[in-house]
Amino acid sequence: MTNPQKAFFDLLKQDRRYPAEAYQFVWEALNFAQEQLKMGTPQVSERPQTSEELAGQQKAERHVSGQQLCEAIRHYALRQYGLMAKTVLNSWGISATSDFGELVFNLIRIGHMRKTKDDRREDFDNVYDFDAAFEQEFRITLPEQ
């Protein structure tokens, strides 16, 4: 088992609030934010990069704020799960935007995500109301007879 995998499995053992699927979803939503929604600001690495790292970079990394990521997660969840988005997130133990912060900062702690010096876990608190964000109004209309 590689070191990043071990760190992730150790995280799942230490913090049992969220399953692996929740972490995978947040990671996918971050990629969605950067690539599809073009969110974030280009970042310059704070440390010198090796020639292998520089050669492997195809595009500049983009930093996404906590609020931006919450909004991207909302869009991604609705795109992936439609009207079931809130139900799916709730089944993973996610019931508020603060849960996204817990997931992200757990991933930062084990080195699977990065943050800037200004990023805080609290940036994810109360970004939007979960019920309003995921329980969109819809009407079933029957054809007139």
Q: How many helical elements?
A: 7
Number of domains: 1
| Mean residue pLDDT | 86
Q: Which spans of ≥5 residues are poorly predicted at pLDDT below 50?
A: none
Quick one: how many beta strands? 2
The coarse silhouette is globular
**Which range does the strand content fall in?**
under 5%
Alpha-carbon Rg, integer: 18 Å
Main β sheet profile = 2 strands, antiparallel
Distance between the termini: 63 Å
Order of helices and strands: HHEHEHHHH
The helix/strand class is mainly alpha
Any chance you could write out the topology, listing elements then pairs?
Blueprint: H1 3-14, H2 20-35, E1 41-42, H3 51-56, E2 62-63, H4 66-81, H5 85-91, H6 97-109, H7 130-134
Antiparallel strand pairs: 1-2
Helix pairs in contact: 2-4, 2-6, 4-5
Question: Can you walk me through this structure?
Answer:
- By secondary structure, the chain is mostly helical.
- The protein has one domain (3-41, 60-134).
- The protein is built from seven helices and two strands; from the N terminus they run H-H-E-H-E-H-H-H-H.
- The protein has helices at 3-14, 20-35, 51-56, 66-81, 85-91, 97-109, 130-134, and strands at 41-42, 62-63.
- Strands 1-2 form a two-stranded antiparallel sheet.
- Helix 2 (20-35) crosses helix 4 (66-81), helix 2 packs across helix 6 and helix 4 crosses helix 5.
- The model has no long low-confidence stretch (mean pLDDT 86).
